[in-house]
Structures are given as C-alpha cells and as structure tokens.
Amino acid sequence: MRKTLLAVCAAIALFAAVNLQKGSIFPYAGRHEAYLLKDSSACQILSLSGEEANDKVFFRLFLKGESVTLQDPTDAGRLMKDFQARVVFEETADGVRSVYCYSPKIRGYKRIGGKKINLHIAYADGRTVAGTPIIFGGY
User: Fold this and answer.
1) Under 8 Å between Cβ of 29 and 71
2) What three-state secondary structure class fits 135?
3) Are strands 119-124 and 127-132 parallel, antiparallel or unpaired?
4) Contacts 24+ apart (CB under 8 A), 47-55
5) Alpha-carbon Rg of the chain, whole angstroms?
6) Contact assessment for residue 26 and residue 83, using Cβ atoms and an 8 Å cutoff
7) For residues 7, 9, 10 and 11, what is the CA-based torsion angle, rounded to 10 degrees?
8) Per-residue model confidence (pLDDT) at position 40
9) To 5 degrees, how large is the angle CA 55–CA 24–CA 113?
10) Dist CA 25 CA 104 (whole Å)
11) Is 23 in contact with 53 (CB distance < 8 Å)?
12) Measured in Å, how far apart are the chain's first and last C-alpha atoms?
C-alpha cells in the first residue's frame, strides 16, 4: 500500500512538473496577456497585471503563448539579451515596427516565411509589446 501511494505521489509530481507553468515567461513590469486554447488570433486572451501574471499557474496544454506591454521600453533590449534571442527579420506596417526573433530559451515556435519565430516585439505609438510565439492581441 505504501509503495502504491508513493508511486501515485511521484506520478502526480511528475505530471505537475511537466504540465504546469507558474507565472509569466516575461518577468517584466507591465500589462500581461495569456493566449489560451489556440495558437492563433482565435485564442482566448486573459489580461493580467504583472503581479497576477507572476502568481498564476497555467496548464501548459491550454497556454499557447503570452505577451507583455512593457512599462519601460528599454526592457526590450534586456529581454532580447535575457532570452539570447536573435533577430530573424523586421517589418514596418501601418506605423508598427515588428521585430521577429528566435530564442533557444523559449519552447515552441511558429513558422513565418519558412523561418522559426518564437519572440515578437512590436513598437507603436510609444508602446513596446513583446509576445511569444507572436503577438496575437492588439498593440
């Protein structure tokens, strides 16, 4: 009985370690959004403050991405360095400058033009938004 209980506890611990994520991938101040259920603009978006985002526990199966509107625009450079991200390409459209990057420290990616992208940084109207794998909400 004791071995069975230990085995069940170990299985639950392993499941939690593999399938749960505590807090945001972005430890920066600002408004956070979690992209749930779908990895496209059809996702459900959960808006959170920075404190709420860091306290929330997400089931990885449902968390498809996230973003943060950075309070300090200079955090974008720090974010690139922290994630060891390299710029894959950039584009500007309708006054929004988008920088598409790839980071080996971020799980998963989307292919855009055949290139792996898992970090998107957008600059518009004095705001800076970072998202993974790309920004699904507005900026």
Assistant:
1) yes
2) coil
3) antiparallel
4) 48/24, 50/24, 53/23, 53/24, 53/26, 54/23, 54/24, 54/27, 55/23
5) 17
6) no
7) 90
8) 75
9) 160
10) 13
11) yes
12) 55
Q: Considering all CA atoms of the chain, what is the largest pairwise distance in Å, rounded to the nearest integer? A: 65
The torsion of the CA quartet 90, 46, 125, 108, rounded to 10 degrees, works out to: -10
- Tokens of residue 71, six digits: 């309070």
Residue 35, helix vs strand vs coil: strand
Question: pLDDT (tens digit, 0 to 9) for every residue of the chain, 139 residues total?
Answer: 776 655 444 444 444 444 445 567 777 778 888 788 777 778 888 788 777 766 666 656 677 788 889 988 888 999 999 999 999 999 999 999 999 999 999 988 999 999 999 999 999 988 999 999 999 876 6
Task: Report whether 114 contacts 93 (CB < 8 A).
Answer: no
Residue the block writes with tokens 């009985």: 1
Beta carbons of 75 and 28 less than 8 angstroms apart: yes
The one-letter amino acid at 100: Y
